[in-house]
Amino acid sequence: MKPATLKYGTALGISVLFAALASPPAYADRLVIPLTDTDSLTHIEEFNWFGGEDDFSAGISFADFDGDGDLDIVSVNGRHWPVADMLLLNDGKGRFPMAAEIGDWRTTGYGGCLADIDNDGDMDLLVPRDWLPVAVFRNGGAGNLTATGEIGEAGAARGCATADLNKDGAADLIIADRKGGSFIAFGPLGPDARTLPLPGLPAVGITSGDLNSDDEADIVLALRGGATLAVLLGEGDGFAAPVLVGDAAWESRSVALADWDCDGDLDLVTAILSGANRVFLNEGGKFTKAVLIGPEEEVSQGVRVADLNSDGRPDAIFANEGQNAVVINTDGLPQRTLLPGNEDTYDLAVGDLNGDSLPDIGFANSDASNTLFFLIRSGDAE
Predict the structure, then answer these.
(1) pTM summary value
(2) Burial of 364 by CB count in 10 Å (0-12 exposed, 13-18 middle, 19+ buried)?
């Protein structure tokens, strides 16, 4: 059964919701794309990009890999073709003048997860791959990522998440597998990690959080068939049978957790490939109502949430096949803005790259250079 969908009732309301910025103004050497009266995204065309169209980028992550206090970038590349993954070091101002290939081999990377898997105080990297096991890279300090083995079997991995599922203080890894081979690897993460298979669903995206306020980590899978999402509620020593959310016609590729309606629980903000993007509202751990936050023709492959305008409400950023989109979550109708570009964007990351305490956005484009957009507020110089 399809969940009830909450729609906006007036033609004016729909036009406001789905309105896109026609032509962002140019300021000196940069584009400025207004989001609200006070907040904009800026992009400097000649500097805010990295990688190329032959990298087939499928994952992007921000973390401090070299221990200097700012966020660096990992670009995971390849998809179905062997390409080198890259680490780019931040100079503290949101510029990335140093980069290095990760590992000795070019492989079929499909996303990436961050965790301090050896408890030495620096960030390590786990890379799901197509036709290969998950790669493990330990950080030896200063961003020196070294391959230290693999986890699981070769499959069709498409995404990952990390969380301490069993509350033992070690990060665990959850892998989404397109052909039904999804699994959990329990920390300490490495070649000897204990694994647990998940239900054989066509999963391509994954996230984890406490959906029913029982202090147990739950898992949400984004599905490419059978339903939009699958929710697996934690039961202390395992997980309940998956509860399917949405409809088989609404295939998804990514899901993020956020209290979209500000009622105290986590909702499912979903990037949908075959229909309008939706937020499945949490009502006591059930997800039978959905709010549309995009047009039917939008093809979205990734989603992240962040409070872009500092109003206490989560906003959504979508990685699209075509123009990427930002949805500002207002008390009334959400305000949607399209960003310049027409790439095949597979993933995105959000974090403060230039030290101004505002969230910035990176997009992993599979058919073009990857791009960075920096949030600015009225009165900011940069």
Answers:
(1) 0.92
(2) buried
Helix (H) / strand (E) element for 204: namely strand 203-209
- 58 within 8 A of 78, measured Cβ to Cβ: yes
Q: Could you tell me the end-to-end alpha-carbon distance of the chain, in angstroms, rounded to an integer?
A: 49
Listed residue (362, 307, 304, 294) closest to 334, CA to CA: 294
What is the C-alpha separation between 282 and 287, in angstroms, rounded?
5
Nearest to 374 by CA among 30, 12, 2, 19: 30
Q: What phi-psi label fits residue 376: left (phi over 0), alpha (psi between -120 and 50 degrees) or beta? A: beta
Distances from the Cα of 239 to the Cα of 43, 198, 200, 246, 350, angstroms: 43, 9, 14, 20, 30
- Cβ–Cβ under 8 Å, residues 116 and 65: no
- The DSSP 8-state label assigned to residue 309 in this structure reads T
Give the pairing of strands 286-292 and 4-6: parallel
Compute φ and ψ for 180, nearest 5 degrees: 95, 5
Q: Burial-class residue 103 by CB neighbours within 10 Å (0-12, 13-18, 19+).
A: middle
pLDDT of the chain along its 382 residues, tens only? 456 555 433 232 333 344 433 344 444 568 999 999 999 999 987 788 999 999 999 999 999 999 999 999 999 999 999 999 999 999 999 999 999 999 999 999 999 999 999 999 999 999 999 999 999 999 998 899 999 999 999 999 999 999 999 999 999 999 999 999 999 999 999 999 999 999 999 999 999 999 999 999 999 999 999 999 999 999 988 999 999 999 999 999 999 999 999 999 999 999 999 999 999 999 988 999 999 999 999 999 999 999 999 999 999 999 999 999 999 999 888 999 999 999 999 999 999 999 999 999 999 999 999 999 999 998 654 4
C-alpha distances in Å from residue 247, one per residue of 102, 278, 286, 366: 39, 12, 15, 27
CA distances in angstroms from 97 to 31, 47, 48, 70, listed in the order given: 21, 10, 11, 14
Sheet with 83-89: list strands edge to edge: 57-63, 72-77, 83-89, 98-107
